[in-house]
Amino acid sequence: MTQQVPPILPLAPVERIIRKAGADRVSEDAGLELARVLEDYGIDVSREAITLAKHAGRTTVKDDDIRLAVARIKKT
Length: 76
Hints:
Distance between the termini: 33 Å
CATH architecture: Orthogonal Bundle
Largest sheet: none
Shape: elongated
């Protein structure tokens, strides 16, 4: 069995997200897996937003870059 790197996101807020969606109880493995998924998605969005900022001639990523990056990722 391969050892996975723990996610950057803290488990408590991730588990709260799952409970907010309607779960009564959340296993630790479920929290870890959602944290990994959210982290992967966040990295994808961030990379796209960085590309958009660079295209605009900026080194600073802005909220508009994040929103546009999410919209572009949803299209694919």
